[in-house]
Design a protein that fits this description.
Blueprint: H1 12-20, E1 31-33, E2 39-40, H2 45-48, E3 60-62, H3 63-79, E4 84-89, H4 94-108, H5 110-116, E5 136-142, H6 171-186, E6 190-191, E7 198-200, H7 204-210
Parallel strand pairs: 2-4
Antiparallel strand pairs: 1-3, 4-5, 5-7, 6-7
Helix pairs in contact: 3-6, 4-5
């Protein structure tokens, strides 16, 4: 994890600079829809504000990512019987990325929107937003009663407490975040340091941690 020496928080600009240097060797895997083995956030908040998904939905991912997500779900069940991964968001077309950046800029201001939303670069095919590759997803966990675990902040809550390394939380919240990290890391996913809910496989964020090229490009 890349940390700011002053505040012990991720320097997102440094991280984004590293991402730009990661090459992409597209493997050609298809987008597939998430199965009913996973809970979903519904109604989806981006669809609720008319984000333009076209023929897809927020619940599509690359084929191998879905396989690995099943591995994470089995690991979770072995640790906590009846618990399930709850998917907030996965595939995001560029049109949706652009729409939501503009939407949240209007709500929260440009500075906050730029910190938490991946920008659309001029050469976007060389540096696509993670969700626009099909290799990233946002998720949480629900217990056996269907109740979402307390992670200290909500998904898409644009505050420093949403950073993955933020420690000024209750022991319950820290344990819940650790559980999510354990099952996702165990299945080969990489957590985005600025968002406890965001995990990648095969994209440029994942490749930074694995000192590799990315398998998934813009799709």
């Amino acid at each position: 994890m890349l940390l700011d020496s002053k505040k012990n928080l991720l320097n997102i600009n440094t991280y984004r600079d590293l991402k730009k240097k990661v090459s992409i060797k597209e493997c050609g895997q298809k987008l597939v829809e998430l199965s009913n083995d996973f809970a979903r956030f519904s109604p989806h908040p981006y669809l609720h504000v008319d984000a333009p998904y076209g023929s897809k939905s927020p619940f599509f991912v690359r084929e191998e990512l879905l396989t690995r997500l099943h591995v994470a779900q089995r690991k979770l069940n072995s640790l906590k019987s009846g618990y399930k991964l709850k998917i907030f968001d996965a595939y995001r077309p560029l049109a949706v990325q652009k729409y939501m950046i503009e939407y949240d800029t209007a709500r929260y201001g440009l500075k906050i929107a730029q910190k938490f939303w991946s920008p659309i670069s001029e050469k976007v095919e060389l540096n696509p937003p993670p969700h626009s590759t099909g290799g990233a997803l946002d998720l949480s966990i629900i217990d056996a009663k269907g109740l979402e675990l307390d992670m200290g902040t909500k998904i898409d809550e644009f505050v420093e407490a949403s950073y993955s390394d933020f420690n000024d939380l209750s022991s319950t919240c820290r344990d819940n975040r650790a559980l999510l990290l354990e099952v996702m890391n165990g299945a080969g996913f990489t957590q985005l340091p600025t968002e406890w809910w965001h995990f990648s496989f095969g994209d440029q964020i994942w490749a930074i941690e694995h000192n590799s090229y990315a398998k998934y490009g813009l799709i």
